[in-house]
From TrEMBL:
<keyword id="KW-0963">Cytoplasm</keyword>
<keyword id="KW-0949">S-adenosyl-L-methionine</keyword>
<dbReference type="GO" id="GO:0052908">
    <property type="term" value="F:16S rRNA (adenine(1518)-N(6)/adenine(1519)-N(6))-dimethyltransferase activity"/>
</dbReference>
<feature type="binding site">
    <location>
        <position position="108"/>
    </location>
    <ligand>
        <name>S-adenosyl-L-methionine</name>
    </ligand>
</feature>
<feature type="binding site">
    <location>
        <position position="12"/>
    </location>
    <ligand>
        <name>S-adenosyl-L-methionine</name>
    </ligand>
</feature>
<feature type="binding site">
    <location>
        <position position="85"/>
    </location>
    <ligand>
        <name>S-adenosyl-L-methionine</name>
    </ligand>
</feature>
<dbReference type="GO" id="GO:0005829">
    <property type="term" value="C:cytosol"/>
</dbReference>
<keyword id="KW-0694">RNA-binding</keyword>
<keyword id="KW-0808">Transferase</keyword>
<dbReference type="InterPro" id="IPR020598">
    <property type="entry name" value="rRNA_Ade_methylase_Trfase_N"/>
</dbReference>
<keyword id="KW-0489">Methyltransferase</keyword>
<dbReference type="Pfam" id="PF00398">
    <property type="entry name" value="RrnaAD"/>
</dbReference>
<dbReference type="InterPro" id="IPR023165">
    <property type="entry name" value="rRNA_Ade_diMease-like_C"/>
</dbReference>
<dbReference type="InterPro" id="IPR029063">
    <property type="entry name" value="SAM-dependent_MTases_sf"/>
</dbReference>
<dbReference type="InterPro" id="IPR011530">
    <property type="entry name" value="rRNA_adenine_dimethylase"/>
</dbReference>
<feature type="binding site">
    <location>
        <position position="39"/>
    </location>
    <ligand>
        <name>S-adenosyl-L-methionine</name>
    </ligand>
</feature>
<feature type="binding site">
    <location>
        <position position="14"/>
    </location>
    <ligand>
        <name>S-adenosyl-L-methionine</name>
    </ligand>
</feature>
């Protein structure tokens, strides 16, 4: 029996088998993986992943979905369910508790809270091997945008400073029940290694990026005037007259390092 999608949880259940198979193939789960699925829903991805890996941890907030997931998993593999808001799940502690170095995370993310979930995941990037997410296509376009693009912004910079962003393929509304009003995309995120990550204070980087894009049509000297003056911006080898949308991610790192 199919569950009724709940608007309050932003539920759109994936049902088209060809796209399910493409996602699972992209993830390429292995028996030694510690897989974590965010928002399993009716289990469209859960059970193929469980079949391939033998075990999986799912994070689900909707209590009504849990009995179906547990019952169907019984003959497939070892399914552990964390009944919680994903934003309150400590992925670093989860990896440590199970004695694994890094998690592999997947999920069809609720569109209305996709950005908070992405930021939550990158806060735990050191404990994550990779992430495969289904998101609104517009969000994936923003995640992968390059400087100068109309959709390049805070999300682009913060994710690209933490991960390699690889858009994989689009998924039409008809692949879901009920169909969303927008196209979706599947994206792969691979956290940067310790050697690849920047060494600036993360809170300073976030403050610079947030302020720079708060009023994106302003020059940096105006947008950042509460944080630094034009001379300090020049010390980072950045033009104070430039706009945030023209800067590469590591330009913001240099600005953070010159922050008084």
């Amino acid at each position: 029996m199919s569950a009724r999608p709940k608007k309050s949880f932003g539920q759109h259940f994936l049902h088209e088998r060809s796209y399910i198979e493409r996602i699972v193939k992209s993830i390429s789960p292995r028996p030694d993986d510690f897989l974590v699925e965010i928002g399993p829903g009716e289990g469209a991805l859960t059970f193929p992943l469980l079949t391939a890996a033998g075990k999986l941890t799912a994070i689900e907030l909707d209590t009504d979905l849990l009995p179906h997931l547990q019952a169907k998993a019984a003959g497939i593999g070892e399914l552990s369910i964390i009944h919680a808001d994903v934003l309150k799940v400590d992925f670093t502690a989860l990896a440590q508790r199970h004695g694994v170095s890094r998690l592999r995370i997947a999920g069809n993310l609720p569109y209305y809270i996709s950005s908070p979930i992405l930021f939550h995941c990158i806060d735990h990037a050191a404990a994550i091997a990779d992430m495969h997410f289904m998101l609104q296509k517009e969000v994936v376009d923003r995640m992968a945008a390059e400087p100068g693009s109309k959709v390049y912004g805070r999300l682009s910079v913060m994710l690209q400073l933490a991960c390699r962003v690889e858009p994989l393929f689009d998924v039409p509304p008809g692949a879901f029940r009920p169909p969303p009003k927008v196209d979706s995309s599947v994206v792969r995120l691979i956290p940067l290694t310790a050697e690849e990550r920047h060494d600036a204070d993360p809170e300073r980087v976030h403050a610079i990026v947030k302020a720079a894009f708060a009023q994106r049509r302003k020059t940096l000297s105006n947008a950042l005037r509460q944080l630094m003056d034009a001379d300090t911006i020049r010390l980072a080898d950045v033009d104070p007259k430039a706009r945030a949308e023209t800067l590469a991610p590591h330009d913001f790192v240099r600005l953070a390092k010159t922050l008084p």
